[in-house]
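Justification of computing resources. Each target in the renewal requires a structure prediction run like the one illustrated here; the chain below, 329 residues long, is used simply to show the kind of job we budget for.
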Amino acid sequence: MDQPGDRERLMLALEAAGLEMWENDLVEGKVTRKVTKVFEELGYRPEEAVGLVEDIYRIVHPDDVAQLKAAVVAHVAGETPQYRCEFRLRAKSGAWVWYANYGKIMDRDGTRQGRRFVGVTFSIDDRRRKEAELERANALLVERNRQLAELNETLQALATTDPLTGLANRRQLFEAGEREVLRAQRMGHALSLLIVDIDDFKLVNDTWGHAAGDEVICAVAATCARSVRGQVDLVGRIGGEEFAVLLPEVGMDDANTLAARLCRTIPASPVPLGTTALLELTVSIGIATLTPDVVSVHELLRRADQALYMAKGAGKNCVRPLPRGELLT
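Resulting structure tokens:
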């Protein structure tokens, strides 16, 4: 039996902790200890609270009714050792306020249901709002990080992509070229480089204008990009009407085959200018392959440029590989 004053001390401790005790008689189906503080906090007058005690679900948020009822049923059926639920109650002002209910059926010994259903109710609104604020802050942080990643990708693309053609720019080509030179030297693999130059491009600009010249550059760039192995080879614009094609693990013979195919494909695809004109283009191509005395992509590019000079001297619209050991001064 409780000692005198124990119950009063308990109620005082609960009140100090912000908890309000409730108790139901499950046999008679009565509320034997009603909550009052909760309804006061929600702004209801005592006479209004009387009806709400008997039908609390009238002010439970519609989204929370099912879980609240399920938690009660589960504990009454003996499926859970405690009754615990968090839900929103509608204040008289119309605002939704978060509360928690923790309780337990007393006197249950396995042979009888137990009569007293005792528990406490307390506000968790501050905690829930802080959690919601934290979730919003985290969601905002995730979104900002996503935007930052997209911006970084955009900046990276701007830093490494030729804005006219969408090909790799000179910077990206040299960075990738240095990596491929080192890898080829380490693994003992082949590496080839083409320089593709549009023949008589100045005449195109002088005759048709710079806008037409840009169309021509883009058309040749697209043909080069379609002609190589995706995700393996790299096509870049190194300036004006000149392109470079980096071919990892490709020797001179296969590089020469690709270059010859480009020399056939580009003239076979005239570029439309205006509504009636079709401009047939040709290109000259120089080829260089990695040899033991080549120590950088700059050297490889210089050799391919020498080969291109030989192709131009041979009458243009042709391919010239730089023979091993041959380098013009």
